[in-house]
Design a protein that fits this description.
With 188 residues, the chain is mainly alpha-helical. The protein has eight helices and two strands; from the N terminus they run ααββαααααα. A hairpin with a 6-residue loop joins strand 1 and strand 2 (49-50).
Length: 188
């Protein structure tokens, strides 16, 4: 890989150079992907895993940090308005004040972080760094989510219930998202 290839930002969808209509369409498609991924449950012990953070980090990496965050915010707004886009096909503003509120509020930051890292070269052209970017987004979700949960139930319990059961899932989803991103990497 040449230095020139590394200096060019990774943007397989080239959304930053597309019209506002294209970008708006991408936000709609991305929010649909988030809604669908929220309904996918993978049985794991001790709690099932959804594919939300897979989609959050992948949207960030594919869309770039700005449009990725905007897409996740649009999805959150849909959920806040009561559309059934969150896990379990539910929605409503009350979910932002409950135990999942911190995780939900972390999602735009995770998309932005992953998108920014992808634009810095932590992308599908460099699979190890792509995995690290996806994992960083997942870890950010866990940290913010646990911080909010700790306000409600205390830190030790929040770590035990809100982080530990999700570590394996975060690693697996990060690997899957990195592999998916690799499919979008330029060849050659």
């Amino acid at each position: 890989m040449t230095d020139l290839a590394l200096s060019r930002p990774f943007s397989p969808l080239r959304l930053e150079s597309r019209s506002l209509a294209w970008q708006a369409g991408a936000v709609i498609v991305g929010s649909l992907l988030l809604a669908l991924s929220s309904q996918i449950k993978v049985p794991m012990y001790p709690v099932p895993m959804t594919m939300q953070t897979f989609a959050v980090t992948l949207v960030g990496a594919l869309y770039g940090w700005r449009l990725g965050a905007v897409t996740v915010i649009a999805w959150l707004a849909q959920g806040a308005m009561g559309l059934p886009v969150f896990a379990g096909a539910v929605g409503g503003a009350a979910y932002f004040a409950g135990p999942t509120g911190g995780y939900l509020l972390a999602f735009p930051f995770a998309a932005a972080l992953t998108g920014w890292l992808a634009q810095q070269g932590w992308n599908g052209s460099r699979i190890g760094l792509a995995f690290a970017a996806m994992l960083a987004g997942n870890v950010l979700c866990l940290v913010i989510g646990v911080a909010w949960l700790a306000v409600l139930i205390g830190l030790p319990k929040a770590i035990a219930l809100g982080a530990v059961p999700f570590i394996l899932g975060a690693v697996l989803k990060s690997a899957l998202a990195a592999a998916t991103l690799k499919a979008f990497a330029p060849r050659g």
